[in-house]
Amino acid sequence: MENRITELFNIKYPIVQAGMVWNSGWKLASAASNSGILGLLGAGSMYPEVLREHIQKCKKATSKPFGVNVPLMYPNIEEIMNIIVEEGVKIVFTSAGNPKTWTSWLKEKDITVVHVVSSLKFALKAQEAGVDAIVAEGFEAGGHNGRDETTTLTLIPIVKEGISLPLIAAGGIATGKTMLATMVLGADGVQVGSRFAASVESSAHEAYKQAIVNAKEGDTQLTLKELAPVRLIKNKFYHDVQELYSKCPSKEDLQNLLGRARAKKGMFEGDMDNGELEIGQISGLIHDIKPVAQIVQEMISEFEASKKAISEL
User: Fold this and answer.
1) pLDDT score at 135
2) Cα torsion 196, 197, 203, 208: sign
3) Strands 189-192 and 167-170
4) What backbone phi and psi angles, to 5 degrees, belong to 194?
5) Of the candidates 111, 127, 223, 290, which lies 20 to 30 Å from 235 by C-alpha distance?
6) pLDDT digit string (tens) for 260-295?
7) How far apart are CA 282 and CA 304, in angstroms?
8) Domain range list for the chain
9) 4-203+285-311, what's its fold?
């Protein structure tokens, strides 16, 4: 399956395991890379020295390429970037910030840079900043999301029409069929988050993984758009947020309810009532917790079978 994405990252299949907070530690990233896709560490939930530890463990666990996802609003961003360079990481995915801030600096260090966007407007800014590829993420995705609520089905062809860079589709992709669909729309590869959150190697709490498996259609919702839009499973915390909305809250009121470390409380510590349970709409199609290698092989097998079926139409 050689194409622009497999060549860019030197991987077998054009699939990226998303760098998700509280899920994407070294066990998940190395298992993903060993399966022939690109594994990513999620720096957004790691203190700098914790990230260094995960990078070092990942290097020992795989000889394949892997990268780090870095939210650009991270408070220790300079220390994080220096650690990435010091540890010899050669692929960085940036998100939640201006790509112009770090892209040139990273590329001077011979690092491949990919930026995550939710619109053509930001894709064009990332291309202008000099990134090597774009991840276009539809609002079906879990976690923090775009305010425009553009679906993947609409976003991918719009971004494809406007840029010349390799394009990676994200949001609502967990099967070989959804992978094929986005590639038909113009993507060169896919980024998969929710399906790998419910993997054996995910660093998330088992109760959270089970909540993903139990989720049905309509069980997630995008909320807190005044702060940073985030898609959550509808638990007690989510309903507390909705109750506050009924009182016309200020941004400060919402921030006070959110507090600190809600995502850690839910996804990592397993508080299913009071934590943020970030996951995508595709969770309605995730029915079990599997090893990463099995997930990848099932996706590729379904992709190939679906491609053959389409050619016979």
Assistant:
1) 98
2) negative
3) parallel
4) -55, -40
5) 290
6) 899 999 999 999 999 999 999 999 999 999 999 999
7) 21
8) 4-203+285-311, 216-282
9) TIM Barrel (3.20.20)
